[in-house]
Design goal:
Elements (H helix, E strand, L loop, with lengths): L1 H16 L31 H24 L3 H18 L9 H10 L7 H17 L2 H5 L2 H7 L10 H7 L2 H14 L5 H4 L4 H5 L4 H14 L5 H5 L3 H9 L28 E2 L4 H7 L3 H30 L3 H11 L10 H9 L3 H36 L10 E2 L19
Length: 420
């Protein structure tokens, strides 16, 4: 009850903290005399506010059903058909937007930029899956995420990856969310949305390279189950953290495990932890000395990450349009006479002076300087903790799903012969 009150307090605090304001274009539209018309951005058509709240209602309903099927009725078929509905509604009908994964960037920008206000629906799409995951595990991944659903339906013959490869690839989502937060906080770009491999398929208007990327993920997903969810999705980092603290979580057995081992190969995501073999632990020699050595190395990893971030901030800042434009005009002043360069011509038509542009670029680069070091230190901490985790063994008597990695798909339960 105390945990529920804390969640509700946090929700209402965030709800009343953000206000809605209109967004303005960075530069006014230039007055071209050549008959040029500024193209429309390809985005889903805006919806009425009531329909946006209807989407939130659908999300709550889907999350509730996914939780019910996974934890209460223990129905894989229920989770499967619910994910099909999610794919149709949130995927193809709603064009993959609003997206809980991309909402990370909206939340970040709302904290970093006082002139930006996140919409209430985007905030709810960000918070609700995390709240459900905190209590019930990653049921959002099981039946409420269209990106996960489209991958889940193409799994044919999944293979099990080596543990070292799983852990190594598992670092990518941390790097992705670090860059996504950095780029959003500096007002540079929403890279999660820009490089979403499936949103172009949902909208049927993706560029050729993005179609290739999306199809590649689906083809890979036939054998390496849900590759985007496991090794790229930045939202999975937050979901994994929340799920580790979940009080109610999907279990393989409805009662005591009988050690039949039928579930050992049931999970295509390698998310089942086996009973601890103490003889193998002793034989491996992974004891206190190695644990202490890895623990001492964590500050070194963090310091190395901060150093790499500081050295890379200049390169990363060039992704910002203001910084890129300022460097372009400084390095090549003659480009002002190029009528085909729309960025330059837009800037000239805005009436903004070169000094102002350079000052703005310096401010942004300063943000990258700080943000890159924070992101680098965070990655160093993640690497250090990942290595430390390889020498930490928890005593387990049964076959249990790993709370952080389990996607609550309910496949494993069909293999268990134990009855309530």
């Amino acid at each position: 009850m105390k945990k529920l009150k804390y969640i509700l307090f946090t929700f209402y605090f965030l709800l009343f903290t953000f206000t809605l304001i209109a967004q303005q274009q960075r530069f006014p539209k230039p007055e071209f005399e050549s008959g040029y018309e500024q193209p429309d951005t390809v985005t889903p058509e805006p919806r009425a506010l009531a329909l946006e709240y209807f989407d939130v209602l659908v999300l709550i309903l889907v999350l509730s059903l996914a939780t019910w099927f996974a934890l209460k009725t223990r129905s894989r078929q229920g989770v499967l058909w619910l994910s099909v509905f999610t794919l149709i509604y949130f995927g193809f009908y709603r064009n993959g937007c609003i997206c809980s994964i991309g909402a990370i960037q909206n939340v970040t920008l709302s904290f970093a930029d006082p002139t930006y206000a996140i919409s209430l629906t985007a905030l709810l799409f960000f918070i609700l899956p995390l709240a459900f995951t905190l209590f019930f595990g990653r049921t959002f991944c099981a039946g409420a995420c269209p990106l996960g659903a489209i991958q889940d339906l193409v799994i044919i013959k999944p293979i099990s990856l080596p543990k070292w490869l799983n852990k190594t690839l598992g670092l990518i989502p941390y790097l992705y969310i670090s860059l996504a937060v950095l780029f959003a906080a500096t007002g540079t770009d929403f890279i999660i949305c820009r490089y979403d491999p499936f949103v172009g398929i949902f909208r049927m208007d993706a560029k050729f390279l993005m179609v290739v990327l999306g199809v590649s993920f689906l083809l890979m997903g036939m054998f390496v189950a849900r590759p985007y969810c496991r090794f790229f999705c930045p939202y999975s980092v937050l979901l994994s953290w929340m799920s580790r603290f979940s009080k109610w979580h999907l279990t393989i057995t409805p009662a005591a495990c009988i050690q039949c081992k039928l579930c050992t190969n049931s999970c295509p995501f390698d998310a089942i932890d086996f009973p601890t073999n103490e003889k193998e632990v002793v034989k491996s020699g992974l004891g206190t000395k190695r644990f202490l050595a890895y623990a001492v190395l964590i500050p070194i990893w963090v310091a190395a990450g901060v150093f790499v971030g500081e050295r890379s901030h200049t390169f990363l800042s060039k992704a910002n349009p203001d910084v890129f434009l300022a460097e372009l005009l400084i390095s090549n002043p003659e480009i002002k006479n190029d009528p085909d360069n729309l960025d330059v011509q837009t800037f000239l038509a805005s009436g903004k002076t070169m000094e102002t542009l350079v000052q703005e670029a310096e401010v942004i680069r300063g943000k990258f300087y700080v943000g890159s070091m924070i992101a680098g230190g965070f990655m160093g901490l993640v690497i250090g903790m990942t290595l430390l985790n390889t020498v930490v063994f928890r005593k387990r008597q049964d076959y249990v799903p790993h709370k952080g990695n389990c996607l609550s798909c309910a496949r494993c339960m069909d293999y268990c012969p134990v009855e309530k």
